[in-house]
Amino acid sequence: MGKDAKYLRKMISRGGQPLFKYFLPNQHVKSVFEITPAKLKEMGIKGVITDLDNTLVAWDVKDATPEIFTWFKALKENDIKVTIISNNEKERVRVFSEPLEASYVYSARKPLTHAFKRVAKQMGLKKNEIVVIGDQLMTDVLGGNRAGFSTILVVPIVETDGKITRFNRMMERRILKWMRKKGMITWED
């Protein structure tokens, strides 16, 4: 058994806290529309890093909805910087982001932390002034937590997903079940 496998086993046998804490979001909401500029300001947030697919719109919807335009406008009017960060390809992210006049990162390789840290540097903000919003534990929450940001998990807009995301959802259900059993989370699916 390799060194990493032994460490992983040791952490899980201790109750899993060190490992599973990276999957635990700071907050859970039903939709991005519950995340208002006033609430963000109360938290001291000046920047938002948000996922695209199934967070802002359904994964198979090309353009932003009028409600998303309004949400982005409200954030901008309150001097809250926003960047969309997606594992999706350039054309998908560009076509969605440009009409919103939003900064974006495509092929971000979440949950790796490089894209998150690069966006924070571009925003010129401290880690405690930025929140990561997304619908997946395996990419958005894990990546945001590993990079040192607060995270908000939103309920996916639709229940259907692309092939890779379906695998992630299966893993998420197992992690959520374990965290619920340990009393780490209280919300329902």
Structural notes for this entry:
- The chain has 189 residues and is α/β, with parallel strands linked by helices.
- The protein has a single domain, classed as HAD superfamily/HAD-like (Rossmann fold), CATH 3.40.50.
- Helix content is 43%, strand content 13%.
- It is globular and about 40 Å long.
- It comes from Gracilibacillus marinus.
- This is YqeG family HAD IIIA-type phosphatase.
- Pfam families: Hydrolase_like.
Helix-strand blueprint:
Elements: H1 3-13, H2 17-20, E1 27-29, H3 37-42, E2 47-50, H4 66-77, E3 81-85, H5 90-97, E4 103-105, H6 114-123, E5 130-134, H7 137-147, E6 150-154, H8 163-181
Parallel strand pairs: 1-6, 2-3, 2-5, 3-4, 5-6
Pfam families: Hydrolase_like
Organism: Gracilibacillus marinus
Protein name: YqeG family HAD IIIA-type phosphatase
**Spatial separation of the terminal alpha carbons:** 36 Å
Q: Structural class given helices, strands, pairing? A: alpha/beta
SSE string, helices as H and strands as E: HHEHEHEHEHEHEH
The strand count comes to 6
CATH level 4 superfamily = HAD superfamily/HAD-like
Return the CATH class: Alpha Beta
How many H/I helical runs? 8
CATH architecture assignment name: 3-Layer(aba) Sandwich
Our count of domains comes out at: 1
The helix fraction, in percent, is 40-55%
Report the principal-axis shape.
Answer: globular
Provide the CATH topology.
Answer: Rossmann fold
**β-sheet strand percentage:** 5-15%
